[in-house]
Amino acid sequence: MLVTGSEVLVPARQGGYGVGSFNTNDLEITQAILRTADRLNAPVMVQISEGARKYAGTEDLGHLVADLASRVRVPVALHLDHGSSYASALSAMRAGFTSVMIDMSHLPFEDNVRETKRVVEAAHAMGVTVEAEIGRLGGVEEHVSVDAADAFLTDPDEAERFYQATQVDYLAIAIGTSHGAYKGKGRPFIDHARIEKVAARIPIPLVAHGSSGVPAWVVERLRAAGGEIGDAQGIADEDLSRATKHGIAKVNVDTDLRLAFTVGVREVLEAAPAEFDPRKILGPARDLMAKIVEHKMGVLGSVGRV
Ligand code: G3H
Ligand code: 13P
Ligand code: ZN
To answer: Among 12, 58, 64, 229, fewest CB within 10 Å belongs to which?
Structure first.
């Protein structure tokens, strides 16, 4: 069932659990997400980035997800990930997205407020809910001093002022995570105290980007199948689980699906060099991505919430 972002995220914030928001680029990824959500009775979000729109086409991919979502029992929001402009948010909504992110976090505070407000007004008029971001994501490495980290991470007072000025529906905050498979040396750090401070000031669902775990088994199998991957590092399950109990309701995951997809394809092609049936190549990749989705839903506590 296709619903807005708020319809899956508000109960999550209130219930102290997280909803996985998984990036898709094609049919197999979308099926891995939605079939698993349906089987586990878990609310879910499927998100499409600007890059995915360029690759697959906004209508082709958006309509595909919306159609599959409308035919599962669990609530699914179709979300624009890191929307880069007002026009982009509008065209996504026209294509049936039920949730959009307007990411102006690179702009000064007042500009971020102004651009976010424009999107919130248009989206609410169309029955769509909105995510914005305040603070800067990016690797805050262990050797960075607390003062330097503070400059990147979301300031709780600023978050409160931003929420009051924009009336945005859910807010991405910078808490130490970063995108991709290399989230810093050693154990990536999550600023739990900061999450709690923001959550105490604003009642809306909070969003964590860069939440892939980069599981060891995936990295090992990738290497065993001839893949090259350096000192990859993700967010620990315990950290994520703890964050969802204190205000993080939307948890963004892309990298883990990419890694699992690549393991699946590599393993088939290595074991069966004569194979050229796309279904035999992509099927195992879809199964491995479903395994990732299932694990993440367990960590986030969204299983059985529908
Ligand atoms: O936030 C980044 C997501 O992983 C999407 O990545 O822009 O390469 O599709 P992308
Ligand atoms: P990962 O790279 O950790 O999967 O994060 C994805 C993300 O935040 C998409 O917006
Ligand atoms: Zn992101």
So the answer is: 229
